[in-house]
Amino acid sequence: MALNLNNTELVMTAGLQSQFPTDGLLQIALSGRSNVGKSSLLNKLVGRKSLARVSGSPGKTITINFYRVDKKFYIVDLPGYGFAKRAPADKAKWSKLTDSYFTSGTMTAVAQLIDLKVGPTADDEMMLDFMNQSDIPYIIIATKADKLNVTNRKAALEELRANPLVREGCEIIPFSALDGTGKDEAMRAILALLEAAK
């Protein structure tokens, strides 16, 4: 798929299911815990430094942001989960909004972000289990790969791949927003997921 990545725009910041786009374009959702690097990944993928705002206060955002890429598909930035300081009412709102997205029928596939240095948290594993049970197509993007040396990075990737909740054959891509490692591989994998869903 030939893409003009400069033609990427934020078309909707949705706080309600009724605001989700209904134009039929395929949608790849970015899922992960707060501060895992979803906005940084999105900015790096489309070559824009500040298209997606990188929050200084993780866990504050409770909206779903729809970025349309060259009028061909959406990259959907979901609010991060697992942020301990969020108020119970905010957590409930996050859960309701995110659940409504996953059950809306508009999502095509998921790019699940996991901090490679930290490894899968209990919330990450809950998400993987949910996607397995719901038969949702997904890839894993292992962020912050630059924080590990080559030996530790390899070991962390092997450990992640061996996690029983990671679907067999799931593509795992080490990624760094700092040096761009994995950028092209991540975009290729996203496009392959979308292509397979057509």
Low-confidence stretches: none
Give the % helix: 25-40%
Q: How big a fraction of the residues is strand? A: 15-25%
Tally of helical runs: 5
Mean pLDDT: 89
**Quick one: CATH superfamily?**
P-loop containing nucleotide triphosphate hydrolases
Q: Output the structural class.
A: alpha/beta
Folded structure, characterized:
- With about 200 residues, the chain is an alpha/beta fold.
- The protein has a single domain (about 10-195), classed as 3-Layer(aba) Sandwich (Rossmann fold).
- The protein is built from 5 helices and 7 strands; from the N terminus they run E-E-H-E-E-H-E-H-E-H-E-H.
- It has helices at about 40-45, 90-100, 120-135, 150-160, 185-195, and strands at about 10-15, 25-30, 65-70, 75, 110-115, 140-145, 170-175.
- A 7-stranded mixed β-sheet has the order 1-3-4-2-5-6-7, sandwiched between helices.
- The protein is globular.
- It starts with 7 loop residues before the first strand and ends with a helix.
SSE inventory with pairings:
Blueprint: E1 8-14, E2 26-31, H1 38-46, E3 64-69, E4 73-77, H2 88-102, E5 109-115, H3 122-134, E6 138-143, H4 150-161, E7 172-174, H5 183-197
Parallel strand pairs: 2-4, 2-5, 5-6, 6-7
Antiparallel strand pairs: 1-3, 3-4
Can you tag this structure with a few keywords?
5 helices, 198 residues, 7-stranded mixed β-sheet, Rossmann fold, single chain, alpha/beta
Question: What is this entry, summarized?
Answer:
With 198 residues, the protein is of the alpha/beta class. It has one domain: P-loop containing nucleotide triphosphate hydrolases (Rossmann fold, 3-Layer(aba) Sandwich), CATH 3.40.50.
